[in-house]
Amino acid sequence: MELVTPDLGLLFWTGLVFMCLLFLLVKFAWKPILGAVNTREENISNALALAEKTKEEMKALQAQNENLLKEASAERDSMIKDAKEIASKMVEDAKVNAKVEADKMISAATAVIQSEKAGAVAELKTQMAAFSIEIAEKIVRNELSTDEKQKALADKLVEDINMN
């Protein structure tokens, strides 16, 4: 039961120690603790204000980024359109150039074919003339192989000359 009802001396010394401790805390620790709490409160307020300011800046940056993305998208679309136009123009130019080159090659080939044909016809004529002469020579030799045949041919030629 002593714990529930303390002595008067114990109460006195406990109160005195408490008062000394309270005096020491107020004199040496209370002001630094309050200063630290106030500084911390001020820092927290500054951090909240900075966070709010940063949040607003982020919204502004986000809007700016969206605008930049729209501009970049429009520029990209424009560049793609220009590239497609250039590519189609290049394809058309290549087709035209290929057609011109093909026409040149066809006309050159036609000219070569014509000259080869003329050469072949000339050579054929030359060979036909040579064959004709050979055939005629063989026929004439065969026809004129004997003296009687030669005299008969000469008589026939004389008669033809006389008729004309």
Mean pLDDT: 89
Span of the ends, CA to CA: 185 Å
Summed up, the helix count is 2
Instruction: Please describe the biggest sheet, giving its number of strands, its sense, and whether it closes into a barrel.
Output: none
Strand content: under 5%
Number of separate domains: 1
Structure classification: mainly alpha
Q: Report low-confidence residues grouped into runs of 5 or more.
A: none
- Can you give the helix content as a percent range? over 70%
**Helix-strand pattern, N to C?**
HH
Radius of gyration: 64 Å
E-strand count: 0
Based on Cα principal axes, name the global outline.
Answer: rod-shaped
Q: How does the SSE layout of this entry go?
A:
Layout: H1 8-143, H2 147-163
Structure description:
The protein has 164 residues and is mainly alpha-helical. It has one domain. Helix content is 93%, strand content 0%. The chain is rod-shaped, with a radius of gyration of 64 Å. The model has no long low-confidence stretch (mean pLDDT 89).
In short:
The chain has one domain. Helices cover 93% and strands 0% of the residues. The chain has two helices and no strands.
Give the tags.
164 residues, mainly alpha, 93% helix, rod-shaped
